[in-house]
Amino acid sequence: MMGKLIRKHPMTRIHYSRYLFFSFIIIIIMFSYFISLIDISIFQSERQLFFETQYIDPLKDPSLNYRNNNTRVNGVIIVLVRNAELHALRETMVHFEDRWNKKYHYPYVFLNDEDFTEEFKKLVSIITDSETFYGKIPKRMWGYPHWINQTKAAESRKDMESKNVIYGGSESYRHMCRFNSGFFFRHELIEKYDFYWRLEPGVEFLCDIDYDPFRFIQNNNITYGFTISLLELPETIPTLWKTVTEFSKKYPQYINKRSVSRFISSSGATYNGCHFWSNFEIGNLNFWRSERYLKFFNYLDQAGGFFYERWGDAPVHSIALALFLEKSQIHFFNDIGYKHSPFQHCPIEKKFHESGKCYCDPTENFDVTYGSCTKNWFAL
Ligand SMILES: Nc1nc2c(ncn2[C@@H]2O[C@H](COP(=O)(O)OP(=O)(O)OP(=O)(O)O)[C@@H](O)[C@H]2O)c(=O)[nH]1
Ligand SMILES: *[C@@H]1O[C@H](CO)[C@@H](O)[C@H](O)[C@H]1NC(C)=O
Ligand SMILES: *[C@@H]1O[C@H](CO)[C@@H](O)[C@H](O)[C@H]1NC(C)=O
Ligand SMILES: *[C@@H]1O[C@H](CO)[C@@H](O)[C@H](O)[C@H]1NC(C)=O
Ligand SMILES: [Mg+2]
């Protein structure tokens, strides 16, 4: 009887379809609300998920703590520096010793394209109980390779300076970037070491470090560690990615099939500019000495972009790391508070501040702010 009515009565049919229509709308609304909830929770927990599922926490291994064992491994602190930066360096070293190295006394190697002054050596060595070594960089590591057209290089510096590119007009900055990209690890004072910590005058360390990061990376097969990652200025690297792509085509055998290349490029077509900020580096020197990296560096060097453009050692290092290594071989040193103006990494977890280990403002933390790539790193 009812069925008949519904089918026959036109008014009832309208009500019925209207009911269907509104149910449909409500379902759509509920569905999109549900989806948005999932989205938000995924976004918020990417960082947390990273720490729960991927992060190796050096603080959880008591055998790494200096109180239990402060035996050094084959590591060195490397500082490229000019005589004029003496006082900024001394200040940084006092903090670095205090936060970490007085517990281990790792040696320092200071490198310079000129001779260090006697005053420099005297005032630096007095800051630390560690051994200090002072080296001059040979011309082949800090100069023009024969295939570079220096007229063209000078023109390009002028051009970049007129466009206000940072350090665009600087010749020494280019030698510095090329040295840090291809030579620091084979300087004669560095050759005998396996692990390095790169230090720059003017940087600050904002937390106590009670363990040996060198032994930590050795034990865990980690090749490289960073604290800050960010986007490169595109105008300094117009042809870098094209050159990298040519390299990958020519030497497919060097590219790691499980590499973390998605950090630098989602499709492979373009470089997103993400790189580890190389003024801080803790790593294994043998990675840079490997055949694949030397082939990579030589290929870039031949292309001339260190001089005709202004390729930085940070994107060069990072691209190689991302092509050759898996994610687990690169470590985010969350517990190391670090500042190189204008950015700092300050751990946000309460425990670092409540325990008195860190003394930085956790709201001033570059990790997930605009321009940082570390939020991408968490999500990979
Ligand atoms: N000996 C020497 N060291 C240099 C020269 N240029 C740069 N450096 C060092 O190389 C490192 C990087 O140089 P910076 O001038 O700090 O470059 P940056 O970090 O990109 O830029 P800033 O934001 O100015 O710090 C620092 O340790 C400098 O002391 C140079 O011409 N000679
Ligand atoms: C301390 O660490 C070194 C280097 O890893 C190791 O060779 C040594 O056995 C350790 N000593 C102790 C007491 O654990
Ligand atoms: C070097 O570059 C300049 C300016 O770009 C150019 O005029 C000159 O022909 C180049 N020299 C050589 C040998 O290629
Ligand atoms: C590190 O690598 C070596 C050699 O590839 C392997 O034997 C070892 O199990 C690895 N250790 C860890 C902690 O992954
Ligand atoms: Mg600097």
Automatic annotation (TrEMBL):
Xref: InterPro entries: Glyco_trans_15, Nucleotide-diphossugar_trans
Family, as annotated: Belongs to the glycosyltransferase 15 family.
A GO MF label: alpha-1,2-mannosyltransferase activity
Protein origin, superkingdom: Eukaryota
Active site positions: E281 (nucleophile)
Pfam families assigned to the protein according to its UniProt record, in alphabetical order: Glyco_transf_15
GO biological process terms held by the UniProt record: cell wall mannoprotein biosynthetic process; protein N-linked glycosylation
Swiss-Prot/TrEMBL keywords: Membrane, Transferase, Transmembrane, Transmembrane helix
GO cellular component term, pick one: Golgi apparatus
Transmembrane segments: 20-43
Name the UniProt record assigns to this protein: Glycosyltransferase family 15 protein
